Amino acid sequence: MVYLDNAATGFPKPREVTAAVGECIKKYCGNPGRSMHRLARIAGEEVYAAREAVSRFFGADDPEEVVFTLNATYALNTAIKTTIPDGGEVLISDLEHNAVYRPLKAEERRRGIKIRTFDTDGDIETNIRAALTADTCAVVSTLRSNVTGKEIPLAVLSKIAREKGLILIADASQSAGHDRIDLAKTPCDILCAPGHKGLLGIQGCGFAVFHDKRRRDSFIEGGSGSASASPDMPDLLPERFEAGTLPTPAIVALRHGIEWIERYGIDHVHDRLQRLTEYAKESISQISEVSYCKGDGGILSFRIRGEDPSLTAERLDRAGICVRSGLHCAPLAHRKEGTLEGGTVRIGFSVFSREKDVDRLLHAIG
Amino acid sequence: MNESIIEIGSMTYAIKAKKCLQRAGIPAETVKTANSPLGCVYGVRIPYRATFDARAVLIRCGIEYHSAN
């Protein structure tokens, strides 16, 4: 089997991650921040260690900035709905995933938020500046498209946001663990990412790094493990946004995934993915039946002339190759690329992908 | 009285406090009490003799505490 769907979820996981999850489940998975017996204390320490790992890896100031969520979608919803003011004008890229677009559309209906888009073709900085108005209060942008792999540099977003005093919420779903992100050098207000893709953790955990220290209304209310006599969520992060039991095994996996990448080297990961994508793009483009092929940074989409992408994906699955077809929950990107009807077949590489995986794909495409 | 308990708040900040104190050479372990007017509170247990120094360490680390017994 050749797994090329890492943009959906990473597979396989490093041995260290699976071992850490197994150890957690077998030996110490009490409820962190609720009970105080030995198993819960150890679980609590492991959760804190994961906060430290995320904070260190992304250049945040403190582990307490790290709020764990179910996934990146939940993190983005939390960020958007607790930060964008009523009636605020928000600028997004023309490639956004529904994890950004849908919450903003919902807030458009509920609170009168206005949405504008910037063009990601050509010079992005010029395009962002051209799209800004006097009413723009925030930019919410992916750092890398989940359809084409197009990068929207955090350095550019950060520079403009700081210059104009704009809120910046960054979706690092396809960048985290693949591209170097350092909030100390290129800050944003909130960085959101999943634990189960490039960071090599398992499904069930994402996070938002609240780098801006603003005070916000709580997003979801419930048990927080402390100050329980109060009817309100705790004032301070991270517990303010962490209601209910945390996904401890997934958080443990995230920490060990990050530490694996730190040992391997993030720049090494980035270069490897870039080389694989270039190889795939060059090779697939040469197939005469391929009508569309675009990719960068570990992600590539293509279509075969006259064949529905879902049928291409089925054919590849029968050949033992795992890819994803369709709109990838990113209709804006497909609208921009002219592939809204039927979508594309998408390849997502990981640090474990090999050139021979691409060769097998080429053979199966025929 | 050999020990002192400093009430901090959430588990996250209690662990942060523990680490700050340990780095400053003050032995500390996390505890949980339900004595606060707000209900359950996490804190740190330290040697009584270190209470004064511990408060100073926590202030330097930017950790607010509710009370020290």
Outline:
Chain A has 366 residues and is α/β, with parallel strands linked by helices.
Word description of this protein:
The complex is a heterodimer of chains A (366) and B (69). Chain A is of the alpha/beta class and 366 residues long. Chain A has helices spanning 15-28, 38-58, 72-83, 98-111, 124-131, 154-164, 248-264, 266-285, 309-318, 331-337, 355-365; strands at residues 2-3, 66-69, 89-93, 114-118, 136-142, 167-171, 190-194, 206-210, 290-296, 299-304, 321-322, 324-326, 344-348. Chain A has a seven-stranded mixed β-sheet with strand order 2-8-7-6-5-3-4, with helices on both faces. A four-stranded antiparallel β-sheet of chain A has the order 9-10-13-12, with helices on one face. In chain A, a hairpin with a 2-residue loop joins strand 9 (290-296) and strand 10 (299-304). Chain B is an alpha+beta fold and 69 residues long. Chain B has a single domain (3-68), classed as ACT domain (Alpha-Beta Plaits). Chain B is built from two helices and four strands. Chain B has helices at residues 11-23, 51-60, and strands at residues 3-9, 29-36, 39-47, 67-68. A four-stranded antiparallel β-sheet of chain B has the order 2-3-1-4, covered by helices on one side. The model of chain B has no long low-confidence stretch (mean pLDDT 91). At the A-B interface, helix 2 of A face helix 1, strand 2 and strand 3 of B.
Determine and state the CATH class of chain B: Alpha Beta
List the domain count of chain A as a whole number: 2
Q: Beta fraction of the residues of chain B?
A: 35-45%
CATH architecture type of the largest domain in chain A: 3-Layer(aba) Sandwich
